[in-house]
Amino acid sequence: MATGRQCYHRRAVVLLVAVFVVTVDGAAAGGVGVDGFITWDDLSVPAGASQWSTWDDKAAGGGEQRTTIVVSPDGTGHSKTVQGAVDMVPNGNKRRVKILIRPGVYREKVTVPITKPLVSLIGMGSGRTVITWHARASDVIDSSGHQVGTFYSASVAVEADYFCASHITFENSAPAAPPGAVGQQAVALRLSGDKTVLYKCRILGTQDTLFDNIGRHYLYNCDIQGSIDFIFGNARSLYQGCSLHAVATSYGAIAASQRSSPSEESGFSFVGCRLTGSGMLYLGRAWGKYSRVVYSYCDLSGIVVPQGWSDWGDQSRTKTVLFGEYSCKGPGASTKQRVPWSRTLTLEEAQPFIGRSFIDGDQWLRL
């Protein structure tokens, strides 16, 4: 697996530059949440909003622009599709736009482009509001034989800053990939923007479920399912109170951090998360030479391989990665047989990874 991932790094760099430009412009406009923060209000809609219409795309030329778009598969909202609702958001948007998605299974690929920051996708129950598609990296997309690739296999791709989602299921329903399969990566959700919050969302797939690509992200009380590297990328993300559910048939891995130099601030921190499921799982694999993954206060089931961690077949990475555990519990938390180059952290060493400061949360979160 993952033989084609290097080509995504170049795309990530281009996206990162563009994301920076939008972030600076958006902050200068003063249109981000309350005093530049994402708040609980950004993750919810007023009571009864699913019954009434609040969007007025003609108001931009005069009066106050209204900021709730309703998606309903029966045609009673403003759009029957999620992508149709995203398309209604003006480019260069400078105020929060909430897209309320009524219950239903939305079988479509969705992209929130970099030109549309400040979008919230708000469902009405993660099991009731589902966005699903079935693309795999090896799928052919045109007559010349070009393939989708992992990057573009995502059912939902978020490239914009200040994105929020709550109570939604993001799914890639492609058939499960066996270990070692080529071209079977199937991403349910790709996060390529900065300052993103997901709350009580489900992200379902098998191989490469969540492409946590670039940016700072906060996933709170979410459910993430997969088998092989089902959380991967080069973002700096805090997973708090999340359920990590493995559906591996043999061996698999939870996290693959792409961090490739000590100057990069990326990495994954799991705090108070719970691991369940099947197979035998590595806690993390060293996709990047300076891969960084830390588990704190997590409940780890017995499906964790005793060694805990993988060097991705490159022993030189054992000298540069940071794979750590602090105060975890459960049958899989025993560190007696861990690889010698992983670390059992002290409280002082774990502290930078435990709180929202890991993702500079004091600068953009008010939750």
UniProtKB/TrEMBL annotation:
Keyword Secreted in record: yes
Localisation per UniProt entry: Secreted, Cell wall
Signal sequence segment: 1-29
Keyword flag Nucleotide-binding: no
Residue ranges constituting the Pectinesterase catalytic domain according to the UniProt record: 69-362
GO molecular function: pectinesterase activity
Keywords associated with the record: Aspartyl esterase, Cell wall, Hydrolase, Secreted, Signal
InterPro entries per the UniProt record, alphabetical: Pectinesterase_Asp_AS, Pectinesterase_cat
Reaction catalyzed: [(1->4)-alpha-D-galacturonosyl methyl ester](n) + n H2O = [(1->4)-alpha-D-galacturonosyl](n) + n methanol + n H(+)
GO biological process annotation, one example: pectin catabolic process
PROSITE patterns: PECTINESTERASE_2
EC number: 3.1.1.11
Major localization class: secreted
Pathway in which this enzyme or protein is active: Glycan metabolism; pectin degradation; 2-dehydro-3-deoxy-D-gluconate from pectin: step 1/5
Superkingdom assignment: Eukaryota
Active site: D229
Pfam families hit by this protein: Pectinesterase
Similarity section: Belongs to the pectinesterase family.
PANTHER family: ACYL-COA THIOESTER HYDROLASE YBHC-RELATED, PECTINESTERASE QRT1
Protein name in the entry: Pectinesterase
